[in-house]
Write a structure and sequence with these properties.
The chain is an alpha+beta fold and 147 residues long. The protein has two domains: 3-67, 434 Repressor (Amino-terminal Domain), CATH 1.10.260.40; 84-143, Cyanate lyase, C-terminal domain (Cyanate Lyase, Chain: A, domain 2). It has helices at 3-17, 21-28, 32-39, 47-57, 61-67, 84-108, and strands at residues 111-125, 132-143. The protein has a two-stranded antiparallel ribbon with strand order 1-2.
Length: 147
């Protein structure tokens, strides 16, 4: 057994039972974005969170332990993705990445936006021309140090 086996079981149970990520998040007491990342193998659960997720998805004690192991973040896609939705985020970074970088550096100075001290919110934005996906990402600015 490994973390991928647990992730696949979670997805299988989610589909079979029609479980919604937002409902899982309420029980875990975290955002739907973080909770989804946890269930997809990208975050580390506390023992209490693993127990809640375990109850929802019928995970045994060993499977719950795997939720508490620090994952290799991003290892699920070591190459450019082929899934159209995920690829569009790659496209977004390829097209707008230099602009985002330039504007962050102009406003904050030499540094990066943290993906560790980070939050994200994904919502539906109704629009008469077709609903829009509203993604807000907020990461702490980490300046490079001189030494």
């Amino acid at each position: 057994m490994n973390r991928l086996d647990v992730t696949e079981k979670i997805i299988s149970v989610k589909v079979a039972k029609g479980i919604q990520w937002a409902d899982v998040a309420k029980k875990v007491k975290q955002s739907k974005e973080w909770t989804t990342a946890l269930c997809l193998g990208q975050m580390t659960a506390t023992a209490a969170q693993a127990k809640v997720v375990g109850k929802i998805f019928g995970l045994n004690a060993e499977e719950q332990k795997w939720l508490q192991v620090v994952p290799s973040k991003g290892a699920a896609s070591p190459t450019q993705p082929v899934d159209p939705l995920i690829y569009r985020f790659y496209e977004l970074v390829n097209v707008y990445g230099p602009t985002i970088k330039e504007l962050i550096h102009e406003e904050f100075g030499d540094g990066i936006m943290s993906a560790i001290d980070f939050s994200m919110d994904i919502t539906r934005e109704p629009d008469p021309k077709g609903d829009r996906v509203h993604v807000v990402m907020s990461g702490k600015f980490l300046p490079y140090k001189t030494y």
